[in-house]
Amino acid sequence: MFYLFHGQDTYSQREFLAGLLAKEGDADMLSLNTTRLAGKVSFNELQSACDAMPFLARVRVVIVEGLLAGATDKAFMDRLVAYLPALPATTRLFFLESADLSPNHRLIQLAEKEKSGRVRHFALPQGSELDRWIRGHVEAGGGRIAPQAVQLLATNVGSDLAALGNEIDKLLLYAGPEGTIAAGDVARLSPYAAEASIFDLVDALGARQAARAAALFQQKLNEGADPFYLFSMFIRQFRLLLQTKSLLDAGERPAGVTQQLKLHPRVAEKLVAQARGFSLPQLEHIYRRLLQIDVETKTGQADLLTALHLLVAGVAGEE
C-alpha cells in the first residue's frame, strides 16, 4: 500500500503515521525494516527500497519526505505512477509533504483511484478547531482543562502543535491526575503567555500613551524579565506588525492576514488593530532602530536596558 500525507500540519502527520506503524507488529523489528528517504531521490533508489522483502517482520516500511512539493521530473512521475499499483503487498510506502498539494496532482488522483492508495490532507487547525485539538490532547493525556486556559494556550502558542503538545504535557504534570489546568497555570508555566503582556505594551505605544507604556515596561522588569528576552519580543512583535501593515496597505483583509502569516485568528485580530496605530514608515523606522540597537549592544556601543527605555519613550512620544 502507498500513502500520501500532505499539508502544513506535519505534527499530526507524524502522529497519524506513528499510529499506523504501531499496528504493524514489533517496533524494534519494524525499525530494522524501515528505510527513510528525503528530498530528490532517483526512481531506482525508491524502487529498490520498496521491492526489498521484509526481514523477520510482516512489512517493509519506506518513508519519503519532501519529494513531491517541488518540480518533479515528468519521466520520474510517469515511472512512479506506473509502478505504484504493482507495489509489493508487503511494502508500506509513505509520502510525507509539508506543503499543500494540488487536488490535480497525479499522485493524489492515483491514490484516490487505486484500492492500494490512501491520501490525507493535514491542515493546521484554526479557531474552534484548534480549541478542540487542545481539549482533545489534554483528555488523551488523562487531564482536564478550563475554557479560559484553552483560549490562553490557543492565543499565545497558536497552531504550532509541537509547541502546544510540549506545553500541555508540562501542564498535565503540574496539575496532576485529579486537577484541572487553569488559566493561571498557563500564565505561570508557559513562556508563551508572557507574550500577551507585550501586546499590552505595544497597544500603549500605538496609542502614544507614554506613561502607561513606561509603566508596563518597568512592570516586566520588576517581574524579573530578562532585557534580552524583552528585546527579542519587541523584534518579533514589530516584525509581525510591519508584515501586517504591509498586507493591509496592499488591500488584504484580516482573514488574509491570518492565513498568510499563519497566525491564530485572535492574534491576527490584535495585530490588525495595533497596526492601525502606526503608519508603515513609522514601523519601518522602529524596526530599523531595533536592528541598530542589536548591533550597538553587541559591539559594546550601548547598554541594552538604557536603549530599550529610550526606545519606549521615543515611540510613545512620536506623532
Question: What would a concise description of this structure say?
Answer:
The protein has 16 helices and 7 strands.
Report what the structure shows:
- There is one protein chain.
- The protein is α/β, with parallel strands linked by helices and 319 residues long.
- The protein folds into 3 domains: 120 residues, Rossmann fold; 62 residues, Helicase, Ruva Protein, domain 3, CATH 1.10.8; 124 residues, Zinc Finger, Delta Prime, domain 3 (Up-down Bundle).
- 60% of the residues lie in helices and 10% in strands.
- The protein is built from 16 helices and 7 strands.
- The strands form 2 sheets. Strands 2-3-4-1-5 form a 5-stranded parallel sheet, with helices on both faces. A two-stranded parallel ribbon has the order 6-7.
- Helix 3 links the parallel strand 2 and strand 3.
- The protein starts with a strand and ends with a helix.
- 29% of the residues are buried.
- The model has no long low-confidence stretch (mean pLDDT 88).
